[in-house]
Amino acid sequence: MSIYLNKDSKVIVQGITGGEGSKHTARMLAAGTQVVGGVNARKAGTTVTHTDASGAEVELPVFGSVAEAIEKTGADVSVAFVPPAFTKDAVVEAIDAEIGLLVIITEGVPVQDSAEFWAYAQGKKTRIIGPNCPGIITPGEALAGITPANIAGKGPIGLVSKSGTLTYQMMFELRDFGFSTAIGIGGDPIIGTTHIDALEAFEADPDTTAIVMIGEIGGDAEEKAAAYIKEHVTKPVVGYVAGFTAPEGKTMGHAGAIVSDGAGTAQGKKEALEAAGVKVGKTPSETAELMREILKGL
Q1: Which residues form the active site (predicted)?
Q2: 119 and 230 share one domain
Q3: CATH number of the domain residue 82 falls in
């Protein structure tokens, strides 16, 4: 009842000994995730101690490389908490080690670096989520990232979102129904997993009944997703586009949220989605209400 991540996923943390890596390793363990170790070349051979979901103390080994971590633990997911300057090297290392899923939390990764590692990943075995994202959560099973695990439980809704905070809000708004998987794909101009990738996976997942898609101004990802939904998605989709009040030509928050010459506007995205049969809310709460009505009618 999930996409990309489940209770059997074995997770390592690149940057496990850093402040953010350590804090969120603890939270992932508390969410029930099978965190099996971490990577820091300078601290290879040491261990870090945390508490798991049952309250038991766990000692996690720190490895010198992703390849070694996979060999010793059988890990199939990595979460990268690595400073922007070192993110590209960490990503290439994970791709070379053939980790199945790589979640890049880091904000502020240079776009050229993202372009290079995205190109490097093509045709290889690693699915990338991010960068600059909250990651992915399958409630009650596993968390790979920084999404608070106590917002919502298991249920029939699949959620894909460009925005971290709107991911959390939507999960909270629809906590009475719950989620199969919620995935924050990040708002940078170049990202790994897209809306379309997640829509395809949710369409194929037998336990996802309906899908919430959250986009934002800038670029044409939402328009492309609308075209994909029209052709390939049979499940009901509701949408929300952040940025209706954004002034044209101004960069808003996310690096990818740039609107120019009328392209990439919230209104344009809303119209494209509605033309594909997607109900679009004007606010997150209205979007949640649209989903509630759909689920009650199923």
Answers
A1: 254
A2: no
A3: 3.40.50.720
Q: Which of 129, 161, 196 is the last residue of a domain?
A: 129
User: Do 161 and 184 meet the contact criterion of CB atoms below 8 Å apart?
Assistant: yes
Range of the domain at 269: 151-297
Active site residues: 254
Is there a single domain that holds both residue 193 and residue 82?
no
CATH code of the domain containing 279: 3.40.50.261
Give the C-alpha distances (Å, rounded to integers) separating 212 from 44, 271, 287: 41, 16, 8
Please report, in tens digits, the pLDDT of each residue of the chain (298 residues total): 689 999 999 999 999 999 999 999 999 999 999 999 999 999 999 999 999 999 999 999 999 999 999 999 999 999 999 999 999 999 999 999 999 999 999 999 999 999 999 999 999 999 999 999 999 999 999 999 999 999 999 999 999 999 999 999 999 999 999 999 999 999 999 999 999 999 999 999 999 999 999 999 888 999 999 999 999 999 999 999 998 777 776 666 666 666 666 568 889 999 999 999 999 999 999 999 999 999 999 8
